[in-house]
Amino acid sequence: MVKRFSTHDIVDSERFDYWQGLINSTYYTPTYNRRLSSDGFDGSLEIKRFGGSLITRIKSTPIEYCDYKPDENDNILVTLSFCEHAILNQNGQTLEQGAGDILVYDSALPFSCHFPTGDDQIVMSIPRTLFLSHISQPDRVINQVLSRQSPLGNVSVSLMDSICQVSEQETGIGDKMISSMLTMLDSAYEAINEPVLSQRANQKLYKVQKYLLDNMDDASLSLETIANDNNMSSRTLNRLFAKEGTTAMRWLWQQRLNACYKALMNARYSTITETAFSYGFSNMTHFSRLFKETYGVTAKQLVEQRR
User: Fold this and answer.
1) The domain over range 3-192 is classified in CATH as 2.60.120.280
2) What is the largest CA-CA distance in the chain?
3) Cα-atom radius of gyration of the chain, to the nearest Å?
4) Among residues 110, 125, 109, 102, which one has the least CA distance to residue 23?
5) What are the domain boundaries of the chain?
6) Looking at the domain that runs over 215-306, which CATH code has it been given?
7) What is the 3-state secondary structure (H, E, C) of the chain?
8) Full pLDDT tens readout for the chain, 307 residues
9) What are the pLDDT digits (tens) for 172-192?
10) Under a CB-based contact definition with an 8 Å cutoff, are residues 57 and 38 in contact?
């Protein structure tokens, strides 16, 4: 059964106190609330249970909520805004949420929510254990805005809005519906994070490749030394190059071979051995085998053809 509350029938002088008590009892979070308008206060609240989660639709005139104490129920709050402008402060971040945006924050940490044009939002209070069981990387979801215009953002918004329209559900069905919504949300956040992560990976890859080119003549280079000199683990290093379809050492050997080929074609060094050693090869048998496999001719044949 949906519970509905409103300040409409409360006398003006008591409305804000009534609202503060209602908010605290609903979200189990003692907040300090502040009116942002000198006009009369008005607010409405709809509450329904979906298994272990609480779904509310909250509307009010301009207001600010400040929570300085952890939520006794240790819930994650997933919000869908319908107001023009909302501002959340948490974890040293200031996040702006517009109409149609989803924002997730942690009720166990201090926060403040600022609604300068009035509050109008869906708030889902979800048990942390349920949230974490469906969100693969919570640190990339909590305190991050999901725009309706983002990939899969519109689908997530529609799903949240649709769930809010459904009547109250018992634990089994309700938890399944919230779980489906969280799975969709996880995919939506993953979609907006992927370009950023790819960009960072590309920057790291470029940095390592430049390092290898600058140190190509160092025959002692190994996977471990390359990783250490670039402040990453060997596993991370391999992952960077795996996206290019190779490994760090294979890429290095290929660059060495390319440099040797150009040097031999331009007669930069007096001998093949000097050429190979100048670009990091320390074993001529290894060099000769790789050169023949790569170019189809031996280094000696290439030099003779050039002449």
Assistant:
1) yes
2) 102
3) 30
4) 125
5) 3-192, 215-306
6) 1.10.10.60
7) CCEEEECCCCCHHHHHHHHHHHHHHHHCCCEEEEECCCCCCCEEEEEEEECCEEEEEEEECCEEEEECCCCCCCEEEEEEECCCCEEEEECCEEEEECCCCEEEEECCCCEEEEECCCEEEEEEEEEHHHHHCCCCCHHHCECCEECCCCCCHHHHHHHHHHHHHCCCECHHHHHHHHHHHHHHHHHHHHHHHHHHHHHHHHHHHHHHHHHHHHCCCCCCCCHHHHHHHCCCCHHHHHHHHHCCCCCHHHHHHHHHHHHHHHHHHCCCCCCHHHHHHHCCCCCHHHHHHHHHHHHCCCHHHHHHHHC
8) 789 999 999 999 999 999 999 998 888 767 788 999 888 999 999 999 999 999 999 999 999 998 866 555 689 999 999 999 999 999 889 999 999 999 999 988 888 999 999 999 999 999 999 999 999 888 889 999 999 888 788 999 999 999 999 988 877 899 999 999 999 999 999 888 765 556 666 788 888 999 999 999 999 999 999 999 999 899 889 888 887 788 999 999 999 998 999 899 888 888 999 999 999 999 999 999 999 988 888 999 988 876 6
9) 899 999 999 999 999 999 888
10) no
Q: pTM for this one?
A: 0.65
